[in-house]
Amino acid sequence: MAIERILKDDASEEKGERARMASFVGAMAIADLVKTTLGPKGMDKILQSTGRGQSVTVTNDGATILKSLHIDNPAAKVLVDISKVQDDEVGDGTTSVVVLAGELLREAEKLVASKIHPMTIIAGLLRAFHHCIWVLSSVHDQIAEKFKMDLMKIAKTTLSSKILSQDKEHFAKLAVDAVLRLKVKGLLQGSTNLESIQIIKKPGGSLKDSFLDEGFILDKKIGIGQPKRIENANILVANTAMDTDKVKIYGARVRVDSMAKVADIEAAEKQKMREKVDKILAHGINCFVNRQLIYNFPEELFANAGVLAIEHADFDGIERLALVTGGEIASTFDNPESVKLGHCKLIEEIMIGEDKLIKFSGVEMGQACTVVLRGASHHVLDEAERSLHDALCVLSQTVNDSRVLFGGGWPEMVMAKAVDELARTTPGKRSHAIEAFSKALVAIPTTIADNAGLDSAELVARLRAEHNKEESNAGIDVISGSVGDMSELGISEAFKVKQAVLLSATEAAEMILRVDEIITCAPRRREDRM
Amino acid sequence: MALAFDEYGRPFIIIKEQEQKTRLRGLDAQKANISAGRSVARILRTSLGPKGMDKMLSSPDGDVTITNDGATILEQMDVDNQIAKLMVELSRSQDYEIGDGTTGVVVMAGSLLEQAEKLLERGIHPIRIAEGYELASRIAVEHLERIAHKFEFGENNIESLVQTCMTTLSSKIVNRCKRQLAEISVKAVLAVADLERKDVNLDLIKVDGKVGGKLEDTELIYGIVVDKDMSHPQMPKQIQDANIAILTCPFEPPKPKTKHKVDIDTVEKFEALRRQEHQYFDDMVQQCKDVGATLVICQWGFDDEANHLLMHRNLPAVRWVGGVELELIAIATGGRIVPRFQELTAEKLGKAGLVREKSFGTTKDRMLYIEHCANSRAVTVFIRGGNKMMIEETKRSIHDALCVARNLIRNNSIVYGGGSAEIACSIAVEAAADRYPGVEQYAIRAFADALDAIPMALAENSGLQPIETLSAVKSQQIKIPTRVMQENNPHCGIDCNDVGTTDMREQNVFETLIGKQQQVLLATQVVKMILKIDDVISAAEF
Prior knowledge:
Chain A: It comes from Linum tenue. The structure holds two protein chains of two kinds. Chain A is an alpha+beta fold. Chain A has helices at about 15-35, 60-65, 75-90, 95-115, 120-140, 145-160, 170-185, 260-280, 295-305, 315-325, 380-400, 410-425, 430-450, 455-465, 485-490, 495-515, and strands spanning about 10-15, 45-50, 55-60, 140, 195-205, 210-215, 215-220, 230-240, 250-255, 285-290, 310, 330, 340-350, 355-365, 370-375, 405, 475, 480-485, 490-495, 515-520. In chain A, α1 packs antiparallel against α4 (about 95-115), α5 packs across α13 (about 430-450) and α5 (about 120-140) runs antiparallel to α16. The radius of gyration of chain A is 29 Å and the shape is elongated. In chain B, about 45% of the residues lie in helices and about 20% in strands. The longest helix of chain B has 24 residues, at about 265-290. In chain B, β4 (about 55-60) and β5 form a beta hairpin. Chain B folds into two domains: about 20-150 and about 415-540, Orthogonal Bundle (GROEL, domain 1), CATH 1.10.560; about 230-375, GroEL (3-Layer(bba) Sandwich), CATH 3.50.7.10. The interface between A and B is large, with 88 and 87 residues. β20 of chain A pairs parallel with β4 (about 55-60) of chain B.
């Protein structure tokens, strides 16, 4: 009697060794894929979408690469997921987390092959992980005095692996200035909310021409016949229909029986709009920004009154503008005295490249600023935006949690050393897993060196020797291709990022290790639309 | 057989299109069913116990789930076989009824089937086997009652509850902070429990998760967390001593359910309508304001104009809050859900000490915390974790722990875990078997053997020698008579964590009595059902 199939026809089931193999291989393949992008000399990837237009992205941001992959292997999906979370949570280290998880699994695979139970391995890994966090929090540096200097270092370290590395000095300054603005007026606990930093991309010029503008720039044109420059502007930010103000009562419709009445209604409509505009004007404004369209008729009315009217600013733009100018987003206009208007010193039209933009300078809230990125092509700009986003995220995290570590593989070596010592003092099979953790940690500086075309074995060995001395600040100096003092070179990383990398990588490795069976359901059938 | 003859000798067909149907009968049918049931049990077997492994499930849409929760595995496996579906049902009903032990019940059913197969081969009639199983299950359940202990706990003495929840959590991926999660679960259950009536409404506990942070950041909030933000970006992000109006009517012009039309044919009417519309929004906001509300939570959307009016009148509002959440908010804040603006009164407002918006990570994720509620009987367990799958798995684990805590409050009897209860039952059933005359005796003995399967699987998953360990523990149970119990020592179980003692009292491994009893009863029921099938007719593939 043949054993009945209990699953559907297309479903597959893999068990024990095979399942574990499948997930190890999948996870390692993903790790190897992004491995070459790690470090300052990491290479980029070209991603071509399968959708229409076959749009192309060039990036070395781990999260972006993995997000665009279509992956079938379930274990690989776990890794993609952790990289996405890393991106959401701290913004940087998206590659490192995947590489570390991959290395942990690579080491774990060897242990599984030598017949150590996965649960024992997990116990060891967790032990090592807790030790690492403990070690890291005991060696970190608190930054306080030379705050800006340190932030610059962190920004530079983050940017050095990106396309912006040529101008990293410039961009690091941009990023630090932008983030510090958030801090100045905010509470002591700076916000991690990056909303008020706006990034505008304009092709043309070179990356060096990118600049930070202290005001707010709105990517819109000023209506025809309206003033191009307003000083001491009173701004009303609104979200209201300025096309035809519809009657919102349900089921209302206009039914007329003669042409004359049509004209009447039209006049009434016009009158209604005119009244609305009058009401708006009664606020004593000289600039009106609306989220929705402004039709020609009201626009003309505004122009007559000498008011600058900007239509169709997108929702983000409106929110930001309201935030920046301190006004409120209004939808009714009956009580001009109680509506808070936004203020700014100067509104003017500026030219960036070919495009005209509207700039609001001297705004009430000093937090907001705009970064205008310039670059040769859209791809460069997109990548620059991603890089800058990483840097901004890291910086804002650092402002909150001001602990920093040295970069260039220094924390990994410190942790590896500590974990090795722990392994030596731990009895039982777990110690193998603890040792494996340290090996996986060392793989990160190794990869950095490899990617830079250096002799990784030699360098890492020297680094290890350096670290066995007291109080070493040694790390890999990719530029000169040797071991260098990280505090002199000014390479720093945020504690929070490292911690998140360790945590997510360990969690992912644990999850994948625990699996001993993979069941893939039959793919959902597509309905034939023939 | 499908062809019969009527009284005139004319043939007629009972089952149509015979060639296209597959049909199994008699012993073949039973064996096929048993093998299907067993193969389901085999999948779950390795997930049992603290060293059990997880399964990775890839859904038809390509989403990945990693879990070792029996009910979830079976649910997502999308089985095709009818008997396998019965097993899935079995696990699901354990999940609904008890919430925990969903893996154990399937493993037990599997091993009962395995034993039944042997008896069938000896030519024992399936019904007799089923009856024997029934008798044996009764013996086992009674024995469980005997070896169970009463647990004392109170508002301040939650240690015993926490220990039991920890046993449940130790088999899950979250076991590295099981202590913390167990405490959260117990506190959550106690917060909503009605100790007088010994009842817990788990609906009052909301389990919510957000990706990011670490598992250790998971917290219990005495209040509600809603994944929403204020409707207008400039509304205050924090409100002290909020009076909450909970509405199910939108801030929009009315939409009567009957069809109607408003015809506008003159300018005057047009004007009137416009004014009325305006007035309408004004009234709505004013009504909320009049009763003293300082926060509006609404199930529906707001019109832009209404939104601004709310903002303008300094009345923060939240829109598009789901029905379930709305109910929870109403319970927690002691407010009433108001379906119409006219019915809004000051008594119907909910009270909360603090409402605040909290943002997470680098993206624009915000959540609304409603805390220090008037009636803290609704709580939220807010899970953080490294990735989505981790959160999902933690949610399932917390659900199990909550159920266990609830069961303990309903009935504070516990049995010892680590397979000790099964071994004790097995011994008791084995001893009782000889007293039964007739063929059932064999079935009862087989039941005793089947009970051994759970400690065996536990030992196997923990990397111990199953047979050796089991026999050692069994002899220990019989050998050491304790002074209190006078008879056997039912606390000896499998030492899964390699602590060095088999005494589950020392290891603090507890399970609920009702959970265990339910497992035995449900597994027996399903096996009986499967055994009674002697004909499988399946329609041809389409």
